[in-house]
Amino acid sequence: MVDLFYDSCGSTNHAFFFTAAGLCKDAATYSSRIDAKMEKTDSPTMKKGRYILGAGVTGLAAGVSSGLPILEAVDQPGGICSSYYMRIGDSARKTSPPNNGQAYRFELGGGHWIFGASPAMLKFIQKFSPVKTYRRRSAVYFPDKKIYVPYPLQDHLSCLDHKIRKAALSELAHASPLGRTMKEWLRASFGPTLYNLFFAPFHTAYTAGLYDRIAPQDSYKSPANRVQVQRGARGQAAKAGYNVTFVYPQKGLDALTQRMAAACKIHYGHRVEKIDLSRKKIVCQNGATFFYEKLISTLPLNQVISLCGLKTKSLPDPYTSVLVLNIGGERGKDCPRDHWIYVPKSKSGFHRVGIYSNVDVSFLPKAHRNNHAAASFYVERAFSGGMKPAAGQIKKYADLVLQELQDWGYIRKCHVLDPTWIEVAYTWTWPDSQWRTEAMRLLESHQIYPVGRYARWVFQGIADSMCDGLAGADVF
Ligand SMILES: Cc1cc2nc3c(=O)[nH]c(=O)nc-3n(C[C@H](O)[C@H](O)[C@H](O)COP(=O)(O)OP(=O)(O)OC[C@H]3O[C@@H](n4cnc5c(N)ncnc54)[C@H](O)[C@@H]3O)c2cc1C
């Protein structure tokens, strides 16, 4: 049963996921159950001794559908997808917007846009919060040449100079997407010209230098379709990629996660510090203890293995951490209209800058929503797993980033700048690694079931994570 569950969850295709597994009903079924659950947080179906670890979007979906109690380390729901608010000139983070609306809304992990939601999943989400749909605007920026090329780069060769276009076209015609490492795969898929121009420098930064040792991953983010490439070389590319449209909750991601949390029973401030497998006992940092029969874990796989004191034979797969700088300020005259920009090389070391306020002006303080005078940004930089810079280094880096964005004409005066750190942000695998399977099997043998993006060590977004949460609770 559990085998089937893992296999089916490996798919990003929801229709397949729900029907082939035969385990999870349509997300719409859950939607109808939720109405009743919202009325009553202490569901009568709550099973004693079964717990969910973590109240990010995966844990919340599992909590909504099962009614099981959730142990959550911090004082608010949402995990990486938590929004927070900052007033101009005030360095304090607020969990809710001020009554007068005069605050920037930021997110812990940078802008989180919901893509790839099936109609059923969308219905589930809309039970909690209405959403707006957006059509993606994103680009690759080459600061030294001041050139913007729409994403995906390979579909917009007409924006590059003649020599590069010609070489890239001929190489792409003979490309074959094979390779043991991400580096080999990128070079083989896009040819040496585009590889040297963009893919190598971008992926060096994005994977914090791991790309020549890890297996190829999330290939859907770099589509290589020959017809599209040819059309793009003539300036006629259709929009492509995994997130051509996306949705975002009308009142912010916090409105969605808080409404979901209201339908769950959550023990906040309960950071799990140890899981005693022989006594089936959870010990929290605040001294609380719980005996369990079974657990759904949404915590990163490597961390749960360590909380349980388990060891795997295989070498653990690597991860990268991300430092996100959330910035709000006066909009610069050259600030683009894109929602986010991929940067192959920046002086300060970031690889992506997103512009929250280009997605929706509701991210800005109320007074700035109609005059285009302000803008808000999230700037991402990757680090090798756990290599968190010291506070002084973060401050120095933040100054450099601000200067660089000012030089590019994105921002003038800065109103607020706030760094956030995501310890396990991107999960990777070594070529031919068996670690993930071994680690999950080991946990399962102790009735701990990993569910969600970090617990199963898979690349997936919010919608798929919620889908996992619903499915996980269903088979539990
Ligand atoms: C930089 C970045 C950008 C992204 N952008 C997007 C995007 O635009 N769109 C999209 O769809 N997806 C995006 N994603 C992916 C998305 O963030 C994940 O799919 C989703 O957040 C996974 O949710 P989760 O609940 O599984 O994990 P988490 O959000 O990590 O939740 C885990 C929860 O467990 C809690 N916890 C941790 N340790 C303990 C402990 N010891 N005891 C108790 N509780 C604990 C945490 O506090 C947290 O609440 C992005 C990811 C990153 C890193």
Quick summary:
This protein has 14 helices and 19 strands.
- At CATH level 3, the topology of the largest domain is FAD/NAD(P)-binding domain
* Sequence stretches where pLDDT stays below 50 over 5 or more residues: 1-26, 31-47
Distance between the termini: 10 Å
Give the C-level CATH assignment of the largest domain: Alpha Beta
* Multimer state: single chain
Percent helix range: 25-40%
Fourth-tier CATH superfamily name of the largest domain: FAD/NAD(P)-binding domain
Question: How many beta strands in the DSSP annotation?
Answer: 19
Strand order of the largest sheet: 7-6-15-16-17-14-18
- The tally of helices reads 14
Over all CA atoms, what is the radius of gyration? 22 Å
Bound molecules: flavin-adenine dinucleotide
State the major sheet. 7 strands, mixed
Content of β-strand? 15-25%
Q: How would you describe this structure in keywords?
A:
globular, alpha/beta, Polyamine Oxidase, Chain A, domain 2, 476 residues, single chain, 5-stranded parallel sheet, FAD/NAD(P)-binding domain, 7-stranded mixed sheet, 3 domains, 14 helices, binds flavin-adenine dinucleotide
